[in-house]
Amino acid sequence: MELRPAPREGDLLATIATAFLWIVGLLALAFVVTVPLDAWQQFAFSAVVFAIALALRNRRSRLVVLVLMGLSLAMSARYIWWRLTQTLGVSSFVDLTLGFGLVAAELYAFMILILGYFQVAWPLNRKPVPLPEDRSLWPTVDVFIPTFNEPLSVVRNTVLAATVLDWPEDKLNIYLLDDGRREEFREFCEAVGVHYLTRTNNSHAKAGNINAALKKTSGEFVAIFDCDHMPARSFLQVSMGWLVRDPRMAVVQTPHYFFSPDPFERNLGTFGKVPNEGELFYGLLQDGNDAWNATFFCGSCAVIRRGPLEEVGGVAVETVTEDAHTALRLHRAGYRSAYIPIPQAAGLATESLSAHVGQRIRWARGMAQIFRVDNPMLGKGLSLVQRLCYTNAMMHFFYGLPRIIFLTAPLAFLFFGAHVIHASALMILAYALPHILQASLTNLRVQGKHRHLLWNEVYETTLAWYILRPTLMAVINPKLGKFNVTAKGGLVERSYFDAQIAKPYLFLLVLNLAGVAAGAIRLLASDSSGEIQTIWLNLGWTLYNVLMLGATIATSSEERQIRRAHRVPLQMPAVLHLADGRALPCKTLDFSSGGMALQLDEPRPVEPGSAVEIELMNRGRSQHLPAVVRQDRDERGLSIEFGAMSLEQERWLVASTFARADLWVSLWGRHDRDSLLGSLGGVLKASARGFQRLGRHIVSSGRQGFRAQPRGDSA
Question: Per the database record, which ranges form the Glycosyltransferase 2-like domain (predicted)?
Answer without folding.
Answer: 143-312
